[in-house]
Amino acid sequence: MSAKDIYHDQVRHALIKDGWTITHDPLSLPWGGTTLQVDLEAERLIAAEKAARRIAIEVKSFISASRIADLKDALGPFVLYRHVLNLTEPDRALYLAIRQDVFQTLFGQPYGELLCAEEQINLLIFDEESEVIIKWIP
User: Fold this and answer.
1) Over residues 8-19, mean pLDDT
2) What string of DSSP letters covers 23-87?
3) Alpha-carbon gap, residue 67 to 53, rounded angstroms
4) Alpha-carbon distance 71 to 132, whole Å?
5) Which residues, 6 or more positions from 58, have their beta carbon under 8 angstroms from its beta carbon?
6) Which residues contact 4 (CB under 8 A, 6 or more apart)?
7) How large is the angle between the packed helices 110-119 and 67-88, nearest 10 degrees?
8) How large is the average pLDDT for residues 76-102?
9) For residue 2, what pLDDT is reported?
10) Domain limits, the chain
11) What is the arithmetic mean of pLDDT over 36-58?
12) Is the predicted pLDDT of residue 1 greater than 60, yes or no?
């Protein structure tokens, strides 16, 4: 099992505060003779539809000296997880959980917006101190 991101627990708490139920921590995805580990799986009951919305969340801290290097390290696993989920569980959306300042300085910039659009990256933006979700994109 890989090590948890330093903001793993903050994202977990933020999801629970937002009404989500954590169903797996981590979510195991068997594929090609190995098992991939996505940080969290959560679901939320949608009363009007009498169904549950299911998501998987990959948490990334972006705390190294180079946010571009962090982006490269986050993107590879995220894209792989998304492809495996699309094949095995197409009803589950995958989100990359990032802090608000990472969104503003990296993903909120034109190259970050382009990357999110082209690579189909859903974002969960959270505040690590108050442990709340600030924004979902899309």
Assistant:
1) 98
2) EESSEEEEETTEEEEESEEEEEEETTTTEEEEEEEEE----SS-HHHHHHHHHHHHHHHHHHHHH
3) 31
4) 23
5) 38, 39, 74, 77, 78, 81, 94, 95, 96, 97
6) 39, 59
7) 20
8) 96
9) 64
10) 8-137
11) 89
12) no
Residue 90: CB atoms within 10 Å: 8
Token code pair at residue 97? 């959980």
Name the strand (E) or helix (H) holding 102: helix 100-102
User: Looking at the whole model, is its pTM more than 0.70?
Assistant: yes
Given a contact cutoff of 8 angstroms between Cβ atoms, the answer to whether 26 and 40 are in contact is yes
**What CATH number was assigned to the domain covering residues 8-137?**
3.40.1350.10
Tokens 């990334």 belong to 60
- Cis peptide, bond prior to residue 110, ω within 30 of zero: no
DSSP SS3 for 117: helix
Residue 10 has pLDDT above 90, yes or no: yes
